[in-house]
Specification:
Four Helix Bundle (Hemerythrin (Met), subunit A)
């Protein structure tokens, strides 16, 4: 409502300035008759020149904001799986999995599940059903990664990761990370 008031005030100011220019500076010739078609064309042109860019910019800004939120959440998920990868590397280097590492890894996988659920919910809220196959692959990677890292005798005292376990964990980690990177590109492409 305030925009319309400002627009009307600006038009009135423009008319007053035009009348003043005609009265004090007769360099410009003004006709006393108003061409209705010309006036209508002027009004429509001004409307299109002002309203359309504002509307399009706002719409594009809203879409960009949605994309940015989803991308930030995906990047947070990547950070979490990177932390799992570093924790497993630390356990391989120390040749033991401490109780603290066990609890940390279990907590990280809970965080991974929660973050993935948040990303899926945000995507559904934005009506972006284009990523269903990507989410299926990411869920599969999460399941395989969790099974690889916490499977078997993981919670038993004296459990160790072997070099072969670490190599397998690296393969799954990179596949998981790659699937998340592809999802970022797809979200950005919308």
């Amino acid at each position: 409502m305030m925009r319309y008031v400002i627009a009307v005030i600006l038009i009135i100011i423009g008319v007053v300035i035009g009348m003043g220019l005609q009265h004090y500076y007769p360099l410009f010739l003004f006709e006393e008759n108003i061409d209705v078609v010309g006036l209508a064309t002027l009004v429509v042109t001004i409307f299109l020149a002002v309203y359309i860019p504002i509307f399009l910019e706002r719409n594009m800004h809203n879409k960009r904001s949605e994309k940015d939120v989803i991308i930030r959440k995906i990047e947070a998920l990547q950070d979490t799986i990177r932390t799992v990868n570093h924790t497993v590397a630390e356990c391989v280097q120390k040749q033991t999995v401490s109780t603290g590492n066990t609890y940390q890894l279990i907590s990280l996988f809970t965080t991974i599940s929660n973050e993935l659920d948040t990303i899926i919910t945000l995507s559904e809220h934005c009506k972006k059903d284009k990523f269903l196959e990507d989410f299926d692959e990411i869920k599969s990677c999460r399941f395989q990664y969790r099974k690889m890292v916490t499977g078997g005798d993981f919670q038993k005292k004296g459990f160790r990761y072997t070099i072969l376990d670490k190599k397998e964990e690296e393969k799954i980690y990179h596949r998981f990370d790659k699937a998340l990177c592809v999802l970022i590109f797809k979200v950005n492409g919308l």
